[in-house]
Amino acid sequence: MKELEKILIEKSKNGDTRAFEQLIRKHEQKIYNLLLNMTGNKTATDDFFQETFITAWQKIRSFRGDSEFSTWLYRLAVNLVLMRQRRKKVIRPVSIDAPIITLKGDIKRDFADDWSKNPLATLENRELKKRLHEAIESLPEKYKTVLILRDIEGVSNEEIKNILKISLPSVKSRIHRARLFLRDSLSKYFQHK
Q1: Contacts from 145-150 at CB under 8 Å and sequence distance 24+?
Q2: Domains of the chain (ranges plus CATH)?
Q3: What are the two backbone dihedrals, phi and then psi, of residue 68, each rounded to the nearest 5 degrees?
Q4: Which 8-state DSSP code applies to residue 105?
């Protein structure tokens, strides 16, 4: 952990709201991207985003520094989404057409960008996007979460381990199973073509 971050954390623990604001500003884009990818809904993302940082402020004194501060924030955000989804038993869709928001700008989320000018190919591309979206949504939550963290957010396996508080072999296993499920699901789609 960087020295400035340690200082900001200590000041925040002592009630310094400006220090906490500085601390959060450094991590807010990553947390927003994670939440947007988990919910697929801007309104829900905004709610979870606000709730994450309110919770972080309320629990800052419990941060022990055993992990990076960013990992702690990821864990808070992921837990908020998972708890709400379990309570409501609703899985929110992830829009395949919505851009991925990153620190370097928006990335168009187009898996099949103009393979052909053929209208039939365009229709097939839309169908493939739909199938991919359905396959991701049908994953059990524990597989969907690691897939989003690893393959969409680019979070390392070690960080995922700390965020979800599971072992590294479990992280790798869940990622592998999620990818196998997607491959099998999409293979069935291509076999029917």
Answers
A1: 145/38, 145/78, 145/82, 146/171, 146/174, 146/175, 146/178, 147/175, 147/178, 147/179, 147/182, 148/34, 148/37, 148/38, 148/94, 149/34, 149/74, 149/78, 150/175
A2: 3-88 (1.10.1740.10), 111-191 (1.10.10.10)
A3: -65, 150
A4: E
State if pTM tops 0.85.
no
110 near 156, Cβ under 8 Å? no
> What pLDDT was estimated at residue 14?
94
What pLDDT digit, counting tens, does each position of 102-156 carry? Answer: 666 666 655 544 444 555 555 566 777 788 778 888 888 899 999 989 988 889 9
Distance of CA 94 to the CA centre of its chain: 10
Q: Contact at 8 Å (CB) between 57 and 103?
A: no
